[in-house]
Amino acid sequence: MIRFQHVYKEYPRTGLALQDVSLFIGKGEFVFFTGPSGAGKSSLLKLTYMEELPTKGDVWVAGVRAKGVKRREVAKLRRKLGVVFQDFRLLEDRTAEANIAFALEVIDAPRTAIGPKVARALAQVGLSAKATSLPSEMSGGEQQRVAIARALVNDPFVLIADEPTGNLDERATRGVFQLLRDINASGTAVMMATHNLELVRRSGYRTIEINRGQVVFDSNEAESKKKVEGLA
Amino acid sequence: MRLALRETMIGFRRAPMLSALSITTIAFSLFAFGLFSLVAVNIRKTLSDVESRVEIRAFLADGTAVEVVSAAMGDIGAFPEVSRVEYVSPDSALARARAELGEFKDVFESAFLPASIDVRMREGHRDPASLRTIAGRIKSFEFVDDVRYGEDWVDKLYRIRNVATAAGVILGLAFAAVAVIIIGATIRMAVMARAREISIMRLVGATDAFIRRPFLIEGFLKGVLGGLLALALTWFASVVISRNFVQTEFFSRGLASLGIIGGAVIGVLGSSLSVGRHLRKI
Fold first, then answer.
1. B282: burial class by Cβ within 10 Å (0-12, 13-18, 19+)?
2. Which residue, B65, B178, B181, B220, has most beta carbons within 10 Å?
3. CA distance B185 to chain A (A)
4. Chain B interface includes A154 (CB < 8 A)
5. CA B186, CA B21: separation in Å to the nearest integer?
6. B14/A contact by beta carbon, under 8 A
7. In this structure, are residues B184 and B268 in contact, taking their beta carbons and an 8 Å threshold?
8. Mutation test of the interface with chain B: which of A85, A105, A107, choosing the one with the most B Cβ atoms within 10 A?
């Protein structure tokens, strides 16, 4: 489903962010990416939703190959995956439901389908009562739930979360993490970058540790290696 | 399209001052263009008024038979470049000279002026080269003593017209380029103000064409509104000039519409360049 093969990513100003990263993430998996700040976690996630393209090596996501990919294909791919960030990235002047509907409107979804899908996504994250609230009227945890609802509204096959609990208190962190577990339980793969080792330890999910741009630990290394090599 | 229109309106509502500033800036750059065009239109009109009076006068030898003259007139009238041929008898020539040179009318006491054939050219054939050709052909009639068509001033007139046209085109393009740059800059401000929205749109899978749409509509509307405002300002300026200085002719309806369409095109072009640049960066 998602395959990195000997991927290098180099930025002109900051240098090498990833070196020789090979990994495979299967359907419905929950994978944590850990490591210190600047280790390359965000770069790896950006390569997954093709915000960045590899300098060397190749990435495949749901059959879309990074090498030679067209902008239009990237746009189509992103409709099949959801992305959430530490800073929520909501539109401040729009209500929760308008923020979620926006994700459907910009891909020209049929107007009749938007209302029910938004209501379902809001219910999924437990925020039906806050549908008409503005982001500024919600707590950090609630805003992150709206961001997750927006990421979910297109029924993605994978949810990519870059430090989604980084700005939240412990209680909100637990709530958001539980939500991500529920989403994963319903069949959506989750790729989550985090600093919260406690969360990682308790969950028992696959963990990939990155340091200085390299994968230094993968709890599912053997299986992943087999898949990467086997598909090469 | 509905969403694109809504996003455009949100853009206008969110930054009304920026929008007003953009429209005003566009209006003033188009106004400068409009004023220049007004001058150009009036220069061209004056020149074409003068040009329409260009004629070839063929002076006839004394005693040329009327039948010969009328046969020649038929021949000359059949030239495709010629619109009208008129016979001027010595008496008519005298009357005309008296009328044209009123204060010297006493000088013309007797009919010493020769008869002539006055030839008017069709539009598009009043250039020096055509005049020279036709004059040469007329001169080849043996009863024609001399042919005059004000060669010097026709040359000058054409040189002025060509310079005016070239200056018009160059300055027009320069003003249009300035307008495109200004519109591009104002749309760039709008793009920057909505950078977050654009990044979210891209994140959830909007295509570049979709993201571009509201900005193109915005550029189009700003161009049209700026164009209308510029047209109103130019009209006002033309009224002031007509009342206080010299009678001027305002743009025809077609030319005015062309100006507004031009504003819209410039608006769309400026936006397209601006958004394209931003999208290529992200």
1. exposed
2. B220
3. 24
4. yes
5. 8
6. yes
7. no
8. A105
Q: Do residues B54 and B118 touch, judged by C-beta distance below 8 A?
A: no
The CATH 3.30.70.3040 domain(s) of chain B lie at 55-148
A65 touching B (Cβ < 8 Å): no
Nearest-by-CA chain B residue for A46: B203
The answer for residues whose C-beta is within 8 angstroms of residue A97's C-beta and 6 or more apart is A118, A119, A122, A131, A132
Over its length of 282 residues, how does chain B's per-residue pLDDT go in tens digits?
677 777 777 777 777 887 888 788 878 888 887 887 888 788 778 877 877 778 889 998 888 888 888 888 888 888 888 888 999 888 888 888 777 776 666 666 655 778 889 998 888 888 888 888 888 988 888 888 888 887 777 788 778 878 877 887 788 788 778 877 877 787 788 788 788 888 888 998 989 988 888 888 988 998 899 999 999 999 999 999 999 888 888 888 998 998 888 888 888 888 888 888 888 776
CA dihedral of B130, B131, B133, B138, whole degrees rounded to 10? 140
The shortest CB-CB distance from B206 to any of A89, A91, A107 is to A107
Helices (H) and strands (E) in chain A, counts: 8, 10
Q: A77 touching B, CB under 8 A?
A: yes
Residue A73 contacts B, CB cutoff 8 Å: no
CB contact under 8 A, B200 and A102: yes
8 Å CB contact of B204 and A103: yes
Answer yes or no: do A106 and B204 touch at CB < 8 A: yes
**C-alpha–C-alpha distance, residues B55 and B131, integer Å:** 8
What is the residue whose two structure tokens read 């990044």? B199
Reported residue count of chain A is: 232
Classify domain B55-148 by CATH number. Answer: 3.30.70.3040
User: How do residues B83-126 score in pLDDT, each as one tens digit?
Assistant: 889 998 888 888 887 777 766 666 666 557 788 899 988 888 88
Helices (H) and strands (E) in chain B, counts: 9, 4
Question: Structure tokens of B117?
Answer: 């054939």
How close, in Å, is residue B197 to chain A by CA atoms? 7
Chain B contact for A49 (CB, 8 A cutoff): yes
Query: CB distance B3–A105 less than 8 Å?
Result: yes
Q: How confident is the model at residue A183 (pLDDT cuts 50, 70, 90)?
A: very high
B254 touches chain A (CB under 8 A): no
pLDDT(A125) > 90: yes
Helix (H, G, I), strand (E, B) or coil at B35: helix
Whether B210 contacts chain A with CB within 8 A: yes
**Nearest-angstrom CA–CA distance, B48 and B276:** 44
For helices B195-203 and B151-193, the axis angle rounded to 10 degrees is: 70
Hey, are the CB atoms on B3 and A106 less than 8 Å from each other?
yes
Across residues A154-176, what is the average pLDDT? 92
